[in-house]
Amino acid sequence: MHAFNFNQARSALLGALLLPVLAGCDARGQNQDNPTPPPPEVEVAEVKAEPVTLWGAFSGRVEAPQTVELRPRVSGYIDQVNFEEGKLVNAGDVLFVIDPRPYKARVQLAEAELTRMRSQLALASSEAARAEQLWERRAISREEFEQRNAARTMAQAAVNAAAAALQSTKLDLEYTQVTAPVSGRIGRAEATLGNLATADATLLATLVSVDPLYVYFESDQQTVQDNPHGEAVPVRIGLSGRQDFPYQGQLDFVDNQYNARTGTLQYRAQVANPDGRLRPGQFARVEMPVAAASAALLVDRKAVLTDQDRRYLYVLADNNRVERRIVETGRRVDGMLVITEGLAAGERVVVNGLQKIGFPGIEVAPQLVDMRRTPAPMVVATAP
């Protein structure tokens, strides 16, 4: 029994001594089966110097070239309202009608007065002609001759006055129809059927022109220095809250002095609006070309990273190791950034797979791609 126990103890001791050796052999086998992982694959793009047009972004407001407050030229009660509020109207459309009956009566009275004055003129002219014949024969005194000539002159003046009065009453009758002076969009009726409208005082409605429209915006002094002449240039216009710029305009006015309070200069662009989608009073975003660069370095925005207040990107060295490069950025280009300092044309920048770069100096497996995979208009929209 004692010999048996001794053998068991010896076997257990030998097993304990061999266990670390076997474990080491297993570890070496595993290292051979799982070699060091290959360098991570990243996409790199070569930086090229390209000519671009630099655009500035501004906030503006849409305004109508013509805004008309419709007020009556004659007083009276409103007899008709001939438009639908908020709709488009054409120049010459009759919008309001003031009760014309009193003015028709005045026209008739003025016509009758003109007829009477013409009759008196005919009588005075006949008497003056007869007096001239009598004066030649010295059949009447000179005083009577002059009196009849004066009577004819006064009768002619009375006819002229009556004709002017008739013309005035006809104008008043015409003014009972309030027409649209310009084509545009009419607002709500401020005075409705049956209300008294006072000449040159009562606001009937407001009319604004809609095609074309103006967009006013302010520019700082630096932008003005970049584009000093303010020549007619195309601009792109978009609405607040949207990213696109569907409207094309033309710069047609630059103010002649700076605003002393804001230090800005006012610009105006004219934009076609045939479908009436733009409305006066809307806020707008405007892009205007401010300068041109013959050799700008453009990098995909996704490749530019931020460390507090500094911007950097990863540049591929000759040994396929990446280095961190601090850069200065300029304006944004549709999906791209202008690099102003810290980068040279011909260098390769990591544009995709940045999350695989654990630390600067890591070796990578670069895949060369085009910096601008989907060509886009080279338009600089806003500051970085």
TrEMBL record:
InterPro entries per the UniProt record, alphabetical: MdtA-like_b-barrel, MdtA-like_BSH, MdtA-like_C, MdtA-like_HH, RND_pump_MFP
Keyword Coiled coil applies: yes
UniProt domain Multidrug resistance protein MdtA-like C-terminal permuted SH3: residue ranges: 301-356
Keyword annotations of the record: Coiled coil, Signal
Main location: membrane
Membrane topology qualifier: Lipid-anchor
Annotated Gene3D superfamilies: 2.40.30.170, 2.40.420.20, 2.40.50.100, Helix hairpin bin
Entry's Gene Ontology cellular component terms: cell envelope; plasma membrane
Protein name: Membrane fusion protein, multidrug efflux system
Residues of the Multidrug resistance protein MdtA-like beta-barrel domain: 225-290
Annotated signal peptide: 1-23
An example molecular function term from Gene Ontology annotations: transmembrane transporter activity
Domain Multidrug resistance protein MdtA-like barrel-sandwich hybrid positions: 67-204
UniProt subcellular location: Cell inner membrane
Domain Multidrug resistance protein MdtA-like alpha-helical hairpin residues, every copy: 109-176
